[in-house]
Write a structure and sequence with these properties.
Creatine Kinase, Chain A, domain 2, three-stranded antiparallel sheet, about 40% helix, about 475 residues
Length: about 475
């Protein structure tokens, strides 16, 4: 089982506050390219490393920016949490020193305390991407709602047969993951109820709630109807809302103005092909469904856990359509034979405080390793209960009760299950869970700590306690 993370950190000016504009990152990537990194468009670079594993889907380290002034580091997939920790430390130091020389610092926060989510801030500090512009102008998305948030996304190789079960568990346990890892409170105190994690509401507000694209809301945060099977998941991807764009996030993007679902796009094309438009030039062209389009649909689900599917060479589109139209057993058998790899991306953890970067990865890996016991735990209560826990995690303390159930007790049970899973692996990774056990013992997530600093000294105190310091 290979594992990795995508570690996002807010970037801030070391003097004066405010945001960091895209030109700074472009200059950084150019410098890294001169040092042997391979550029991927304007806003990302990658390199092979001594950690690279040939069996990994992407056997390299990556550094990039995404929605705004946030650095994202992705270590090369490896077998142990310890190796991820080592890679993150090296990558943070490398990038951090170069940013310091440019007057920019990195924060161990899930929210940038200097930035809001206004439209003006978005267009000043965003990473320009055609995919985002399409979503805003064509679908009515409010991409600026996630300008100032940062996450730690855990990535784990999983088996095709267990993938729907693992996805369901991650959705059910999202609230507990939020309680443990929230590091993104609302700092301005604008709401009547203190928000201890802004990440869920930022994603819910990200998409329209009505109109032609109202069902886009089904693909952010948590699905209102539980996903339990491969058919459930592919239905969500392919039939629940109008098709998104085709192509990569950075280039070669087209959309179909008729706005079919992807299921209709691939199974019922017009005789002369679908009329499409390029996102960047608005040029009209005709396209026909291809297997490559199927492979692009998994990233358009932006919920708090998702599956990434990598198809074997030679898989035919017509066979995919036939299997999808068949019964659940036929589809599951087909996917088992034709998927080369499935990855879980867990997306609910806020970016962690300095020194505690991989505790959430250890937690997720331990849960997956102890799958049977964790499934029994998660299935002991209905999905509606777990949705209530997720909602509670946005505002309530760790000592809360949800529908009469003690959240602290749930957290301890889940941590013990993860600890057992890590002990089974035999890599001594269970030590990385200690920050999470400490948070439960002290009844304090990182969000409460950040609020304490903010109340004592404002934004300056938040920065002082969360700023990375690099020597070199």
């Amino acid at each position: 089982m290979l594992i990795s993370v995508e570690h996002e950190m807010p970037a801030i000016p070391l003097v004066g506050g405010g945001g960091v504009e895209p030109a700074v990152f472009i200059d950084l990537w150019r410098e890294l390219s001169r040092e042997g990194w391979s550029p991927d468009g304007k806003f990302a670079v990658s390199r092979k490393s001594a950690y690279s594993r040939p069996q990994a889907e992407k056997p390299f380290q990556m550094a990039s920016t995404d929605s705004g002034p946030t650095i994202e580091l992705a270590p090369s997939p490896v077998e142990t949490v310890h190796e991820i920790d080592e890679q993150l430390r090296d990558l943070r130091t490398l990038v951090g020193i170069k940013l310091q020389s440019r007057g920019v610092g990195l924060l161990g926060n899930g929210i940038n305390p200097y930035l809001g989510t206004t439209l003006d801030e978005y267009y000043q500090y965003r990473t320009p991407r055609n995919a985002y512009d399409y979503a805003i102008h064509e679908r009515g998305w409010r991409h600026w709602t996630i300008l100032n948030i940062a996450a730690m996304q855990e990535i784990v190789d999983i088996s095709t047969v267990n993938a729907p079960t693992i996805l369901a568990i991650m959705h059910r346990l999202t609230g507990l993951i939020l309680f443990l890892n929230r590091n993104d409170p609302e700092l301005d105190g604008a709401s009547s109820q203190q928000t201890l994690s802004v990440r869920p509401s930022a994603w819910r507000e990200h998409v329209p709630s009505a109109g032609l694209f109202g069902n886009d809301r089904l693909k952010v945060y948590l699905p209102p109807q539980e996903i339990r099977t491969w058919h459930d998941y592919l239905h969500l991807l392919w039939d629940s809302n109008p098709m998104f764009i085709l192509g990569t996030k950075s280039s070669g993007l087209v959309f179909v103005p008729e706005h079919p679902t992807f299921g209709a796009f691939m199974s019922s094309p017009p005789i002369d092909g679908w009329k499409a438009r390029r996102v960047d030039t608005n040029e009209e062209l005709s396209i026909r469904p291809e297997m490559s389009h199927v492979a692009q649909t998994d990233w358009t689900y932006m919920g708090f856990a998702r599956l990434r599917m990598f198809w074997k060479d030679g898989t035919r589109l017509n066979d995919v359509i036939e299997a999808y139209r068949g019964d659940g057993k036929t589809l599951e058998s087909f996917l088992g034979a034709h998927l080369d790899k499935v990855l879980l991306e867990n997306r609910s953890s806020a970016s962690p405080p300095p020194g505690e970067e991989v505790c959430s990865l250890a937690f997720i890996v331990g849960l997956i390793e102890n799958l049977d016991a964790v499934r029994c735990f998660a299935d002991a209560r209905p999905y509606s209960f777990w949705l209530s826990v997720a909602k509670a995690a946005e505002h309530l303390p760790l000592t809360s009760r949800v529908e009469g159930v003690d959240v602290t007790e749930l957290l301890l049970q889940t941590l013990s299950l993860a600890q057992d899973g890590l002990l089974q692996r035999g890599f001594q990774e269970e030590r990385y869970l200690e920050p999470l056990f400490r948070r439960v013992r002290e009844h304090q997530s990182p969000s409460e700590r950040m609020l304490k600093f903010f109340k004592e000294g404002g934004v300056d105190a938040v920065v002082e306690h969360s700023l990375y310091h690099f020597k070199g």
